[in-house]
């Protein structure tokens, strides 16, 4: 059937001597308010091709609220990048990045000083019975001993509950933390959401090894070759069990990163394994997005939905893929309110109720007085009257 679909000739219209491969439907032209189907502007062609007449089912807005307990704002403490929320025996659990003290940036001359809010960080666990008031359950995954692959920072966790076990994936940095450091992804496994967590001996995902730095200066923008989209860092891992395999979605950062239309040169990739602990093989179709910052994905109608925020020409969109690889834009996130930072979805919700049901509520982070703290977000649709 795929071959027949690929070879089927689409209706087209002519504009001068150029044949435009867009299907033109009289009713669609009327709905979109297009004056003349035989003379289409570039905007009208996009509207027809991308079906700008689609309803509001993929469209959403967001609101946020402060929450109680350990996630109340605390001066001098960084709490950010909450994982998905899981429900185990009537209790909600989430995992988050925690660090203490202000950041100093690079080039202080002191390699022990904190360079980013997520530097010198570890992964902590919190629990709640109502999703509003949270208590700390303590350290989940700490930094490794000196010389190990995760001895500098452990941060940006995501959790997967599968077959009675719990899998934490997270970013790691090996000291020293420099501009040219190459972030990797680690994993820890437990039989309970409270641990104890056992780390794997090696990272499960590493950057592509095909870029080349220019000179010896610690400058990540100076390169001879930029390499693949993930040649410097693999960030924001998110692990899903999909099609009887384990799909590890991640954000890639490139050596010599530039700014293009829509901002930073940030894209997502996916690596796939037969077992949760790997080995993971990167998809030959990577990168699978043109945009996005923190990875936010969920299952829907046999495929995978995604919320792409912050970076790239398709930022602040909700997309869907029938196969977890090939994503298409379904909507632009509405309203003046921005999407939540590092949205941690509530994984036990019924995601089949609607395209945005997975976004009903979750956790995110915000900034106050120079410090990051965790909040709750909710999605809603506000119809025009």
Description of the molecule:
The protein folds into 2 domains: 2-49, no CATH class; 61-380, Tachylectin-2, Chain A (5 Propeller), CATH 2.115.10. It is 5% helix and 40% strand. It has 3 helices and 28 strands. Strands 4, 5, 6, 7, 8 and 9 form a 6-stranded mixed β-sheet that branches. β10 and β11 form a beta hairpin. It is globular and about 70 Å long. The two termini are 43 Å apart. The model is unreliable at 1-22 (pLDDT under 50).
Helix content: under 10%
CATH homologous superfamily annotation of the largest domain: Glycosyl hydrolase domain, family 43
Task: Determine and state the CATH class of the largest domain.
Answer: Mainly Beta
CATH fold group of the largest domain? Tachylectin-2, Chain A
**Domain module count:** 2
Q: Averaged pLDDT, please?
A: 91
How many helices does DSSP assign?
A: 3
Q: Tell me what the CATH architecture of the largest domain is.
A: 5 Propeller
Q: Which structural class matches the secondary elements? A: mainly beta
The coarse overall form would be: globular
Through-space gap between termini: 43 Å
Low-pLDDT sequence parts: 1-22
Radius of gyration, whole Å: 22 Å
Brief descriptors of the model:
single chain, 385 residues, mainly beta, Tachylectin-2, Chain A, six-stranded mixed β-sheet, four-stranded antiparallel β-sheet, 3 helices, globular, disordered N terminus, glycosidase, Glycosyl hydrolases family 43
């Amino acid at each position: 059937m795929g071959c027949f679909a690929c070879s089927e000739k689409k209706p087209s219209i002519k504009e001068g001597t150029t044949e435009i491969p867009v299907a033109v439907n009289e009713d669609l032209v009327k709905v979109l308010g297009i004056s003349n189907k035989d003379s289409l502007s570039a905007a009208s062609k996009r509207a027809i091709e991308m079906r700008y007449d689609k309803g509001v089912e993929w469209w959403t807005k967001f609101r946020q609220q402060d929450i109680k307990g350990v996630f109340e704002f605390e001066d001098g403490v960084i709490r950010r990048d909450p994982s998905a929320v899981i429900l185990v025996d009537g209790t909600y659990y989430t995992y988050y990045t925690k660090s203490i003290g202000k950041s100093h940036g690079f080039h202080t001359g002191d390699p022990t000083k904190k360079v980013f809010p997520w530097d010198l960080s570890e992964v902590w666990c919190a629990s709640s019975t109502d999703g509003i008031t949270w208590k700390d359950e303590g350290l989940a995954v700490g930094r490794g001993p000196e010389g190990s692959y995760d001895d500098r920072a452990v941060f940006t966790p995501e959790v997967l509950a599968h077959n009675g076990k719990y899998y934490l994936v997270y970013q790691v940095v090996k000291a020293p933390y420099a501009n040219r450091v190459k972030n990797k992804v680690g994993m820890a496994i437990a039989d309970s959401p409270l641990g104890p967590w056992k780390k794997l001996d090696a990272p499960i995902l590493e950057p592509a090894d095909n870029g080349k730095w220019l000179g010896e200066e610690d400058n990540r923008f100076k390169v001879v070759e930029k390499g693949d989209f993930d040649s410097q860092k693999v960030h924001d891992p998110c692990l899903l069990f999909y099609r009887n395999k384990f799909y590890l979605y991640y954000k890639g950062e490139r050596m010599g990163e530039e700014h293009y239309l829509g901002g930073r040169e940030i894209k997502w990739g996916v690596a796939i394994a037969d077992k949760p602990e790997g080995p993971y093989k990167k998809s030959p179709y990577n990168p699978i997005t043109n945009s996005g910052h923190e990875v936010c994905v969920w299952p829907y109608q046999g495929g995978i939905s995604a919320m792409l925020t912050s970076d790239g020409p398709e930022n602040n969109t909700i997309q869907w893929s029938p196969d977890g690889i090939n994503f298409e834009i379904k909507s632009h996130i509405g309203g003046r309110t921005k999407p939540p930072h590092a949205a941690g979805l509530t994984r036990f919700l019924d995601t089949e109720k609607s395209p945005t049901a997975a976004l009903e509520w979750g956790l995110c982070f915000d900034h106050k007085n120079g410090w990051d703290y965790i909040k709750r977000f909710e999605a809603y649709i506000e119809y025009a009257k």
